[in-house]
Write a structure and sequence with these properties.
Blueprint lengths: L1 E3 L2 H10 L2 E8 L2 E8 L1 E3 L2 E7 L2 H8 L2 E11 L2 E13 L2 H18 L26 E16 L2
Antiparallel strand pairs: 1-8, 2-3, 2-6, 4-5, 5-8, 6-7, 7-8
C-alpha cells in the first residue's frame, strides 16, 4: 500500500539512514550526487572535498536532499527535503566533524576509522595526505515530504 509519511516518520527515517543525495543547481547546470550524512535537529550534516558540489552550493545555496531505502519494487521509503546549504567554520566545523565521526564510525562495519578521507583530521580545513581540503557543511531543512510503499 502506497502512502504519505507523517512528520515523525520522516524525522525517524532521516535519522536512521547515512547515505543521501544532494541536488544543486548553478550556472545553468543541475548536479545530483550521493553523500554520507548525519541528520539531527532539522539539519543534514556532511563533509566533502572542494569540488563541483561545494562550488555549486556556494553559488546557489538552495538545495534538494533525497534519501531512500528500497527493499523491493513494492517495499520502499523515500524522503525529499528542501533547504539551504551553510558552510561551517571554526568551532562549528569542529563540532560537526566530531558529530559525524561519532555517528558514522559507530555505523561503519566495525572499522576503527571512518572510510572517507576528510574525517580523519581534527582540523576541518587541513589537507589530508593527498592534499584535498575538507569542507564541513550543513543543510538547514525548510520542508520535507515522504512516501512509502509496503506489500
Amino acid at each position: 500500500m502506497l502512502r504519505q509519511m507523517g512528520e515523525a516518520e520522516i524525522e525517524a527515517f532521516l535519522r536512521t539512514e547515512t547515505t543521501g543525495r544532494i541536488g544543486c543547481h548553478a550556472g545553468g547546470m543541475t548536479y545530483v550526487v550521493p553523500v554520507t550524512y548525519v541528520y539531527e535537529d532539522n539539519f543534514v550534516y556532511g563533509h566533502s572535498s572542494e569540488g563541483r558540489k561545494i562550488h555549486m552550493m556556494r553559488l546557489n545555496p538552495e538545495v534538494c536532499f533525497e534519501v531512500d531505502r528500497v527493499s523491493a519494487v513494492n517495499d520502499w521509503t523515500s524522503v525529499i527535503s528542501w533547504g539551504r546549504y551553510e558552510e561551517l567554520g571554526g568551532q562549528e566545523a569542529l563540532t560537526a566533524m566530531e558529530f559525524l565521526m561519532s555517528r558514522l564510525v559507530r555505523q561503519s562495519s566495525g572499522r576503527a576509522e571512518h572510510p572517507s578521507y576528510p574525517v580523519r583530521s581534527a582540523d576541518p580545513k587541513r589537507p589530508d595526505p593527498g592534499g584535498l581540503w575538507v569542507v564541513l557543511y550543513r543543510i538547514r531543512i525548510a520542508k520535507s515530504g515522504g512516501k512509502m510503499e509496503r506489500p
